[in-house]
Every structure is written in C-alpha cells, then in structure tokens.
C-alpha cells in the first residue's frame, strides 16, 4: 500500500507500484511509471516521461525527467529511465531524452549528490558516485563504478570510463579512459586509480597490467601507435581489451 501525503499531487494517469512513500508537496505528472518501495521526500517533482524502478530515494528539490535544455527539442515523446536503489539527493535535475536517443538513463545503485545535473540523452551505468554540483552536458556516457568528484564540468558527448576517479573542479571536453585518476588543469592523466581498484578487488597482477597498458599507450605520440604497442606487448586480458576498445572508439580523443 502506498503512503501518499494529502499535500502531494499524483496525476490520475500516473502508474504507481506498491509500498511507495510520496511526501508533502511532491508532484507526479501523467505518463509516469514508478515501481515499488520508492521514497520521495518532500518537494520532489516527477515529470512527464519518467520511468522509475524500485527502492530509490529522492531528496527534496529533486526534479526528474525535466524538459531537455536543448533548443532542438520539439516536444517529441521521450523518457527518462531511473533504475533501482539509487540515492538522488537534494536539487538533482535529470532531463529526459530528445530525438537523438530518446531516453536518458540512470542505472542501479548510484549516488547522485546535491545540485548535480544529468542532461538529455545521458547514459549512466551502475555503482557510480557523482559529487555535489557536478554537471553532465547532453549525451555524456559514464561507465560502472566511476567516481566523479564535486564541481566537475563535463562537455557534451564525452565518455567517462569505469573505475575512474575524477578530481573535484575538473573540466574537460575529451574522454576519460577507464581505471585512471584524472585531474589538474587542464585535466590530464595522473596515474592509475590504485586505491579504487584495490577496493574493488583487483589483484596486484591486474593492476600491474593496467599500469603497463597506460605506460605503453602514452609512450607514443599517436594514439594508434600506442594501441598497437599495447596489443603487441601485453596479454589481452579483459582489462586491457576494455582499454583498447575504449580508446580506439573514442570520438573526442582521450585526456593525456
């Protein structure tokens, strides 16, 4: 049974699962689907096109599936998908998609801290931590287990690899490859995310292989030459293959 405050508005066409808590001054629009066991604290807004899973917690001021901040948007029928067990803190804004992809997606078990923004058509994976006031422009992709600190500005179409640590206040317009620390100004490669990898259970052998892959990759002036060096001198473990695939398909180039 859902607990809905008499001070909340839930559109008659909204679809709610079971055991949700809808606090005072929340607004849930039509064409929205909310699963089970979600907790919407006061003053949360769920806009048209939201598709929300189970076990999420939304803090005051969160605004989900907002109209895209994109002048090309013409009111097309798009959505915003939120997975399961996410913590979405105060004043977080997540836009719905545009005709480009149609959907903005946030996966499972993510922590999106206060006042951060996820723009239209972004794709966020699982177990991601995003710090206060960080902003993702349109069509940014973030892989699993990334940690993005506070006050980070990410250019549209960038991709952030898994298991990275991006230092607070960074701003960048190139891709951040997996397993690394990125920071300083301009944002650049600062080494392997050693502490993060150990916390996630990577072995010393895996970490050494990742380190060697980047040592070879960055030793060449041309990224293509670096990729060939990695292929010729290292075993193609899943970690190495992930690095190669990420770098070789990068559309914006990677930080160096």
Notes on the protein architecture:
By secondary structure, this protein is α/β, with parallel strands linked by helices. It is 16% helix and 27% strand. The protein has 4 helices and 28 strands. The protein has helices spanning 194-199, 204-217, 223-233, 238-248, and strands spanning 3-4, 9-10, 15-16, 21-22, 27-28, 33-34, 39-40, 45-46, 50-52, 57-58, 63-66, 79-82, 87-88, 93-95, 103-106, 111-112, 117-118, 123-124, 129-130, 135-136, 141-142, 147-148, 153-154, 159-160, 165-166, 171-172, 180-183, 188-192. Strand 27 (180-183) and strand 28 (188-192) form a beta hairpin. Helix 2 (204-217) packs antiparallel against helix 3 and helix 3 (223-233) runs antiparallel to helix 4 (238-248). The N and C termini lie far apart (53 Å).
Mean pLDDT figure: 97
- Distance between the first and last residues' Cα: 53 Å
Oligomer: single chain
For the secondary structure, the number of strands is 28
Strands across the major sheet, in which order?
1-4-7-10-13-16-19-22-25-27-28
Radius of gyration: 20 Å
Classify the beta-strand content into a percent band.
25-35%
Structural class: alpha/beta
Write the layout of secondary structure elements.
Elements: E1 3-4, E2 9-10, E3 15-16, E4 21-22, E5 27-28, E6 33-34, E7 39-40, E8 45-46, E9 50-52, E10 57-58, E11 63-66, E12 79-82, E13 87-88, E14 93-95, E15 103-106, E16 111-112, E17 117-118, E18 123-124, E19 129-130, E20 135-136, E21 141-142, E22 147-148, E23 153-154, E24 159-160, E25 165-166, E26 171-172, E27 180-183, E28 188-192, H1 194-199, H2 204-217, H3 223-233, H4 238-248
Parallel strand pairs: 1-4, 2-5, 3-6, 4-7, 5-8, 6-9, 7-10, 8-11, 9-12, 10-13, 11-14, 12-15, 13-16, 14-17, 15-18, 16-19, 17-20, 18-21, 19-22, 20-23, 21-24, 22-25, 23-26, 25-27
Antiparallel strand pairs: 27-28
């Amino acid at each position: 049974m859902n607990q809905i405050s008499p001070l909340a508005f839930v559109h008659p066409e909204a679809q709610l699962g079971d055991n949700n808590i809808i606090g005072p001054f929340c607004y849930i629009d039509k064409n929205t689907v909310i699963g089970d066991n979600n907790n919407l604290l006061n003053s949360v807004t769920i806009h048209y096109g939201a598709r929300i899973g189970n076990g999420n917690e939304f803090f005051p001021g969160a605004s989900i599936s907002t109209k895209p901040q994109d002048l090309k948007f013409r009111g097309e029928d798009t959505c915003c998908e939120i997975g399961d067990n996410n913590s979405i803190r105060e004043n977080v804004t997540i836009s719905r998609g545009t005709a480009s992809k149609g959907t903005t997606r946030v996966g499972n078990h993510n922590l999106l801290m206060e006042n951060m923004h996820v723009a239209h058509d972004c794709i966020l994976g699982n177990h991601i931590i995003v710090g206060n006031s960080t902003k993702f422009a349109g069509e940014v992709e973030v892989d699993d287990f990334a940690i993005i600190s506070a006050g980070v500005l990410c250019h549209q179409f960038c991709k952030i690899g898994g298991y990275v640590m991006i230092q607070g206040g960074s701003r960048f317009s190139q891709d951040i490859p997996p397993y690394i620390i990125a920071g300083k100004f301009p944002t650049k490669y600062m080494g392997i995310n050693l502490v993060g990898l150990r916390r996630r259970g990577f072995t010393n052998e895996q970490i050494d292989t990742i380190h060697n892959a980047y040592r070879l990759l960055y030793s060449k002036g041309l990224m293509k030459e670096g990729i060939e060096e990695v292929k010729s001198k290292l075993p193609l473990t899943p970690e190495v293959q992930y690095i190669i695939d990420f770098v070789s398909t990068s559309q914006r180039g990677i930080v160096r």
